[in-house]
# Entry
Amino acid sequence: MKTLIILVGRTTNPHFAASISDYAARITHYMPFEMLVLPETKNTRSLSEEQQKHAEGDQILKQLQPSDTVVLLDEHGRELRSIELASWLEHRRQSAKRLVFIIGGPYGFSPEVYARANEKLSLSRLTFSHQMVRLVFTEQLYRACTIIKGEPYHHE
# Structure
């Protein structure tokens, strides 16, 4: 199973970008993994939030294949503990052809992207910047991989 994270816009914080790259490289030791950064929508000041979500949604949907298992990182998604995420990931690795996580823009997702999603996950009930979500999620994905392999990175 290949795992892909789709991000809307590049990570602008250099410290976050370096850490995200580090975790992404670590994840590739456990499974085929890729991060795809979609360009930010241009002229957002002239667009409403809904128009911006639709523009981003169109870009996202173009990247998806019919057989993809699509998981949105969304504040209304299901919250999992790290151990539960590892179990969830292991189950998806058995059943999914390509597992695609999507971290959207600042206003969330268009209705079309929500309709295409198979699941929604939330990292916390707290609100994080989209830049920070990228870092926290890649670390948690790496953590899940180490839990699956029984490695000592995670402590109960």
Notes: The first helix runs from residue 14 to 27. The helical segments are 14-27, 49-62, 82-95, 111-116, 130-149. Strands lie at 2-8, 33-38, 69-79, 98-103, 119-122.
